[in-house]
Amino acid sequence: MIQQRPTFEAIAPDFGNSFTYQKFDEDRLNKNNVWHYHPEIELVYVNGGAGKRQIGSHVSYYTNGDLILIGSNLPHCGLTDKLTGNKKETVIQMKQDFLGSDFFNIPEMKQIQSLFDLAAGGIAFSGKTKRNIGDKMEVLEYQTDFKRLLSILNILNELAASEEYKVLNAAGFSLKTEVKDNDRINVVFNHVKQHFKEDISLDDIAGMVSMTVPSFCRYFKKITNKTFVQFLNECRLVHASKLLAEQPMSITEVCFESGFNNFSHFNKSFKAFTGQNPSEYRNELKKVMT
What we know:
Blueprint: E1 7-8, E2 20-25, E3 36-37, E4 41-47, E5 51-55, E6 58-62, E7 66-70, E8 88-94, H1 110-118, E9 123-125, H2 127-139, H3 145-161, E10 165-167, H4 179-195, H5 202-208, H6 213-224, H7 228-246, H8 251-257, H9 263-274, H10 278-289
Parallel strand pairs: 1-3
Antiparallel strand pairs: 2-8, 4-7, 4-8, 5-6, 7-9, 9-10
Helix pairs in contact: 1-3, 2-3, 5-6
């Protein structure tokens, strides 16, 4: 049965804490891989491995781990599963006012408040920032509650000062819409997530949300700043990236397994999306992984 909207995740910090800290590894996997949202801001560090990410309307494939800051109520899927191959995953979740309604309004917190505002679209950090902050997040496991709180503030301050980042939904992912609009976009996202390998016509998808094709196209572009066809192809290309990296399949097999029915179109689309053709992409990944 297709889930029609993202799952609301209720997050309750342990007694005596104002935020949630969790660490996952091969003995304790993070099983929250469904499309979900929560009021808490979430900072996730994936130590090593490769996988898919969907944050709002952004879909992509990451390698060599990930560091993501996800804003309040921004729907997203879990970043890891049993095939990701990561060593550890560290997750911090906190309400935007977890230190009081006015704390982040004081002058010293201005940069962090700006970071929270930017996180409304989801932020991916890279380079030294990813490595350094990842190390600091993993050390939290051995700290007292008070020291951990100070460390989290320091982490947020360093993220706010970093220039090694990309806003994933750069033009803004419109979440503050009417409930009816959120229901519609989530029906679309969930259907694409489960059926991107199949032929999905605009007539079919518009009918699922009780809209005409022209109205649906305008609506989808307004919400996501992408056309539906662009979003669908990105989902297919991200899946193709994952297969090229993880499966000993021929490029032709990857093409058809990702929902494309024309090899020439697949090659052209993949190069436009990644900057490399599938063969170059696979060879480059082999160099990175060795």
